[in-house]
Each structure stands twice: as C-alpha cells, then as structure tokens.
Structure prediction request, 261 residues.
Amino acid sequence: MSRMPTFMIFKNKQVVDTIKGADPRKLSDAVKKLAAEAESDGSSGGYGEASTGGGSWISSSPPKGYKDVTDQVDRHGLDLLNADSGFGNSRTLFDNSKPSTLDSAKGKGKSSDGKSGKDWVESDTDEQLMLYIPFNSTLKVHTLLITSLPPKPSEDADDVPMRPKTIQLYTNRPHILGFEEAEDIPTTQSITLAPQDWDEKTGTAKLELRFVKFQNVTSLILFIVDGDGDGEKVRIDRLRIIGDSGEKRELGKLEKVGAGD
Prediction:
C-alpha cells in the first residue's frame, strides 16, 4: 500500500474499488453501493451486473425477498414456434452465459461455446414468437427479465430485428398454444413495452407482473405479439425468471399434450 489509510473493496475475489486516503465523500459513496447490494440479497447492483449463486448471468439484482428461479425451467419440455433455425433455440434463452453481444460490437456475437453460432433467437416468417415454459416446481413469479440486443439500424443492414413490444402471458397451460388459438383465450396479463423500458447497458426490460395472478405457476406461455418498429422480425437474447420456488413437481406427472388431444 502506497498511502495510508487505504480501503479496498473486493467482490468475487477481485478488487472492484480502491479508496486511498480518508476521503469522506468517496467512503460514503462506497457504503451506499454496498448498502444497495445488501438490499438486493447480496447480489450485484452497485458494482456491475449480477450473478446468481450458480454462476448464471442476470442483468440486474432480484428485488429483496426474491431470487432467480430460472433453474426451475424444465428445459426438455420447452417449445418455441416461429423461430428462425439459423439462430438459437428455446434453450438458448435460458443459457447461463452472458449474451455474447454484450462483449462484442454491432449486435453480433458467438455462442457460449466460442463457436460461430448465434446465441439468440429471432422470429422467422413474421414478428411473432410463441414460447412454452414448463417448470420443475410450482413457482411464485414476480418479474420476468427479457434481454434483446438487436444491432442499431444502419444503411448497410437489411432486415434488422426489433425488440418485443406487446407481450401476452398465459399460466398453467398443458401445452403450447397456436397463434390463432391464443387470440381466443383470455391472457393472464398483457404488457406493452416502451423504448425507455429497455436498459441501455444490458438491453434488458423488466416485466413486473401482477403478483397475485402468478402465485402457483406450473407453466408459462410467453407470446410476442409484435415488435417495436417497422421490421419483420423480433429478437430475444435471454430470459430470466424472478420469484420464489415451492413444491417440487413429480416428473412422472409432467405430460405434454399433443395438438390433437
């Protein structure tokens, strides 16, 4: 240490801040950051993006009293309609890794294994996507964090994908809905996102749910109705589920119902 007193703040065994000398203002700012982390259950917040105990990337810290329950997603039961096969699949949305686009430029990236894959999902024939998410336990869902990192429009780019705008949610359905079928079924909640809802740093929007309607959730359908713009495709990079997990479901009772049943 070259000067006394020196204060060093560590996170994940790395120095995230150093304060040299008895500077009351800097010390006060550091304490406020630490207090903000304590309010969010010790996750990140004051010193960068958050990470769950299992090492899964998350764009921001969960509210106090809740946690990232994305690990309760039954990834074998996921279903996704109208996704372009040239990009990622339904499991990509729940990948533990940080979106590669956040570490690259112009909205381009690689898959989490470092190969030339694209670790995000884009819609195919139009801007709509339908995602079915079954869970391994009964959940109380408080918030959805949806990350979308399309490149900025430019004269050289053709058919730049959009961020989702209108999202409809359905709970406890036994299987995925068809697009026309969804129009005839009441939604659990419908959300319309505005441009200012997207965090500039992480490209993430926070979907705060009507908590009373999401108390005993065994499955969730996320219907992207349209995108924010005049394009023909929508892009999603990651999806995180914030809430609390309850009783574990018996895997033998998880049955996927076919369209004709």
Residues 6 and 21 are 6 Å apart (CA to CA). The chain has a mean pLDDT of 83.
